[in-house]
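It is worth pausing here to work through a concrete case rather than discussing structure prediction in the abstract. The textbook approach is simple: state the sequence, then state the predicted structure, then interpret. We follow exactly that order.
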Amino acid sequence: MELIGFYREMQSAPRDVFRGSLRDQVRSGAAYPKAEVAGYLVAGHPVFDVMETTRDVQ
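Step two, the predicted structure:
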């Protein structure tokens, strides 16, 4: 796994930190079994989270 950094395509006016291109990270093949990963994700349970303010129970 590689960490994602700052890429030129993420900023309209690139600075020094946005040096590389996302296109340089494209691979010809996946380093993992795509069908198994897709099956794992499809088999999961959806999670719904709502952020709201509330008083703490004391």
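Step three, interpretation. The mean pLDDT is 79. The radius of gyration is 19 Å.
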